[in-house]
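Notes from hallway chat w/ T.B., transcribed later so I don't forget. T.B. wanted the structure written out for a chain they're using in a teaching module, and asked if we could keep both sequence and structure tokens in one place. Agreed to drop them here.
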Amino acid sequence: MTEPSMNGTGLHDFPYDQLEAFLDGELSPTLSGSYPVWEAARYSLLAGGKRVRPRLLFAAGALLGPLPKEALPFAAALEMVHTYSLIHDDLPSMDNDDYRRGRPACHIVYGEATAILAGDLLLNRAYELMIRIGRENPLPGVLRAMQVLGEAAGGEGMILGQDRDLALEEMPGERVDISDVLWMSELKTSCLIRAALLMGGCLATAGDGVMDQLALAGTAAGIAFQIKDDILDCVSNRDTLGKTPKKDQLAGKKTFVTMVGLEGATALLGQKASEVDDALDNLKAMACNTASLESLMRALLERKN
């Protein structure tokens, strides 16, 4: 499988093919027979994509030297959690999108009930995998990385962000402030991006100073990532995006663009990009090798899809 590029840049040392093979293996059940829930989970997980969060984990883990062998399975678990969230987000009762990663969404192909179960399967499979690795290597960094992902994806992280997104959609525009959208985005999008960096730091046994800067970079990058998504939703097309454009605007969702306009969203994107740069500069001052992380951040914030 060919590694997709991000605007012609990215992590050239990221083991894309190894990750795809690992995900394929983890989504191959030991039971004989054909089961729609497994087929649906494989359909969504193995659809390709940029694998942004695994890339971030690897880039953060490489700040301090060679990556530990646990990086690959933890990157796979992270991508499973992310894909589960996409399956559920696309459902008619949630964000209601018929397309994901350039093809029909999971519920369009397999039905809503099977799509919900496929998301549940991926979430549980992620923790099965991390627990297995933790039992084989019960190191503090491994257990800490597992905790980071659990908290980021849970009821005070990504799930709460999804809840806030639905709540804001029902609120009149005059009752919503840009700070509400910022908080929602920090939870819904930033939490998992920050978790990717922190998991890499945990596995690399990074110190508190490095972890603090990774948290700052991840929070700012996650919000910037969402702002960029909102901008692209207004100016791009389905073939480029891989999902339905302008849908959020037509549905009356509270996005950065609908709240402050395209110009305001672009200015806010620049502010968050500067915060990412500041954190990277601080990491560089700590003698961290930030080359891969800088390249990846630039690719994410300059992407066209």
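Follow-up for T.B.: The chain has one domain: 16-301. Might be a good example for the class.
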